[in-house]
């Protein structure tokens, strides 16, 4: 574990005059909205409550302004394949990732029977009506009425992002802010990095987590296709090049193109490991140099763990005799390798 540096996002305080809800209270409020929606008796009441509930979900998970959502054409704003929503206009235009569970709720409303007849203006609701409902829902959850306001949800999302280590510049991009009520040096962040950082947080909120070993995150650099398969290459921040072969159906389903952030995982039994000769520089694809950090062996199998100079962790599960034959031991320089067909590819 690396030490010696403080993480500022763990220590900052929010001024008392900034009204906001913490993540626990936001989740509690969301649960209250869900119960309120589910308690609707008649079909018309269910549709009305579902529209408000989904409006709340958007505000809670994007930090958008109420006016941005009330003017939204949902048929053009959501990309459920990529789990994103497009918000704002002009310099405040941005694409914000959403948790998968939120996408499921929105898709059920927009593409289901409740969305029929109101296509394109599902969220065109009276702002006064929305605010009254929001105040009432907060009060029903034993939360002060004023803390149910859309503006409070926006500030709460800002604090939540910062608490999770999202840089201030990225937070401002997500919220579409031209300024911030925080004294700091403002930095500009590329749109792709903004989406990448928040997508990872959205995945965590959806509990779609995976092992840190044999996991690579980067951006697609090249795609080659034939009639059946596609060879997708991407590069990580540590300049590791990964090549994955997937079907064309998967390529289109993932909506992959050059520049899209992706992650790749490889199961340990599909990873090979071999000693690395001094000065050897392999040109083979999906071959990664690392130092052995641990070896766990039984009579039959051996789990070899390694780490690159940049900190990427790898693991191979191989036959014990092969480790003994190659003389691999802790601290040795080795090469982990895997086939392009062994990779499971995800959009980040």
SSE blueprint and pairings:
Blueprint (H helix, E strand, L loop, with lengths): L22 H16 L4 H20 L3 H5 L3 H4 E2 L4 E4 L6 E4 L2 H12 L15 H14 L9 H14 L4 H8 L15 H15 L9 E11 L3 E8 L4 E7 H7 L6 E5 L6 E4 L11 E11 L3 E7 L5 E7 H7 L6 E5 L6 E4 L1
Helix pairs in contact: 1-2, 2-5, 2-7, 7-8, 8-9
Highlighted features:
348 residues; alpha+beta; hpI Integrase, Chain A; OB fold (Dihydrolipoamide Acetyltransferase, E2P); 2 domains; five-stranded antiparallel sheet; 11 helices; disordered N terminus; Integrase_catalytic; DNA_brk_join_enz; DNA binding; Transp-assoc_OB_typ1; DNA recombination
The CATH C-level class name of the largest domain? Mainly Alpha
Query: In one word, what is the shape?
Result: elongated
Kindly state the percentage of residues in helix: 25-40%
The low-confidence runs, each spanning 5 or more residues with pLDDT under 50, are 1-11, 179-189, 206-211
Mean pLDDT: 82
Radius of gyration from the alpha-carbon trace, in angstroms: 24 Å
Sheet with the most strands: spatial strand order: 6-5-4-7-13
How many helices? The count is 11
Q: Assign the CATH topology of the largest domain.
A: hpI Integrase, Chain A
Secondary-structure element sequence? HHHHEEEHHHHHEEEHEEEEEHEE
- Record field, number of beta strands: 13
What is the percentage of strand-forming residues?
15-25%
- Give the distance, in angstroms, between the N- and C-terminal Cα atoms: 25 Å
CATH homologous superfamily of the largest domain? Answer: Intergrase catalytic core
CATH architecture of the largest domain: Orthogonal Bundle
Structural class: alpha+beta
Major sheet attributes: 5 strands, antiparallel
Number of domains: 2
């Amino acid at each position: 574990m690396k030490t010696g540096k403080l993480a500022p996002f763990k220590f900052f305080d929010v001024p008392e005059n900034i009204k906001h809800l913490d993540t626990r209270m936001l989740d509690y409020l969301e649960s209250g909205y869900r119960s309120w929606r589910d308690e609707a008796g008649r079909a018309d009441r269910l549709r009305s409550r579902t529209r408000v509930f989904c409006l709340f979900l958007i505000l809670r998970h994007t930090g958008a302004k109420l006016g941005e959502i009330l003017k939204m054409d949902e048929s053009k704003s959501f990309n459920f394949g990529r789990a994103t929503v497009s918000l704002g206009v002009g310099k405040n235009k941005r694409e914000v990732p959403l948790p998968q569970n939120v996408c499921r709720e929105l898709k059920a409303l927009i593409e289901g029977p409740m969305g029929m007849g109101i296509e394109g203006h599902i969220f065109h609701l009276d702002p006064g009506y929305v605010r009254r409902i929001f105040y009432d829902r907060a009060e029903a959850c034993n939360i002060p009425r004023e803390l149910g306001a859309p503006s409070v949800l926006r500030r709460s999302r800002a604090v939540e992002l910062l608490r999770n280590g999202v840089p201030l510049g990225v937070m401002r991009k997500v919220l579409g802010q031209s300024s911030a009520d925080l004294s700091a040096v403002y930095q500009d962040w590329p749109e792709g990095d903004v989406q990448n950082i928040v997508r990872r947080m959205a995945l965590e909120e959806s509990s779609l987590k995976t092992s840190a070993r044999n996991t690579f995150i980067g951006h697609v650099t090249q795609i080659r296709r034939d009639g059946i398969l596609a060879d997708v290459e991407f590069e990580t921040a540590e300049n590791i090049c990964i090549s994955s072969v997937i079907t064309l159906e998967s390529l289109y389903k993932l909506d992959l193109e050059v520049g899209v952030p992706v992650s790749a995982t490889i199961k340990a039994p599909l990873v090979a490991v071999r000693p690395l000769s001094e000065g050897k520089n392999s040109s083979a694809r999906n071959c990664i140099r690392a130092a052995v950090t641990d070896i766990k062996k039984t009579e039959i199998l051996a789990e070899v763990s390694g780490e690159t100079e940049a900190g990427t962790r790898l693991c191979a599960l191989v036959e014990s005799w092969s480790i003994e034959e190659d003389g691999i031991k802790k601290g040795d320089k080795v090469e982990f390798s895997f086939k392009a067909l062994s990779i499971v590819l995800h959009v980040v």
